[in-house]
Specification:
- The chain is mostly helical and about 290 residues long.
- A hairpin with a 2-residue loop joins strand 1 and strand 2 (about 230).
- The chain is about 75% helix and about 0% strand.
- It is built from 13 helices and two strands, in the order αααααααααααββαα.
- The N and C termini lie far apart (about 65 Å).
- The protein is globular and about 60 Å long.
- It has a two-stranded antiparallel sheet with strand order 1-2.
Length: about 290
Amino acid sequence: MKKSLFTSLDYVDEGFITYLDKMQIDFPVWLDARYLEYEEPLHLLLTYYYFLNYIADEGVLFGNHRGTLLLASKTITDLLGVYSCSKSGCIHQASTITRSLFETVVATKFIYLDYEQRIDLFYDFKYIEQHQRLQKDQTAIEAYMYEEIERKYQEIKFNYNPKSSWYSKLLLKIIQSDPRLRGKHRKATLRALCDAVDMNEDYDRIYSSLSLTVHGSPVLDHLFVENGNFTAAPVFNSLVFTQSSLAMNYAHKIFCLILERIDNDKALQLIDYSRWLLYASLEITQKNNK
């Protein structure tokens, strides 16, 4: 005769409470001990996150285009995401955010090659996305925004390819007019965008490996299966050093582009300080790899 649901839940509840009592004591101690092994690169990564916040709070970015502020904000919060995941032993999740940082570097470089035209193209794409969202569900956006979204959509819709990236229509024109790109790319893909900003080597060397973590490739089984047994325990290994340095490198590239365009003594000093922090991170990583 089958046990009642109530009896089954009692059994699970009793076992889980015993397990929970043990985990709540043992897990934080274990996690802190593992974190200490990687404290140096993670401390520097957190310091760099604070440094980027310092730049924002100092008012250096005041008066910049809202698109620039969006790029800066995304970069700062992504950096905190990499730190938080890495500190918790979530290397797989940190890789996903690092890939997002890479995409932001590529987009920022593309924008800053022709800033006046492309920053509006980047930022105004939100109206395309909002308009598409309204076609599916009008409750997704507050009613008072409908009129502005419709007005802006009609004004800018010819600058974009429907249901594609914000840069796709412009990039396709660039590909068609550039013999070097035209011979290699038929579509306005991210790889083509990387090629257009001279980051194709980074795409081949780094982006593909980061993509494995995003799409759940079985090559990552060593992160989740140990000695033939499934494990959900946090993972700490040398990737903490590599990803911390990589995330700082990407954030540095983005902020350099932003600060260089501001072009005053304070902005240039901040670039130098950022470069100094990045060198420190690279030294830590190289020391660990010896």
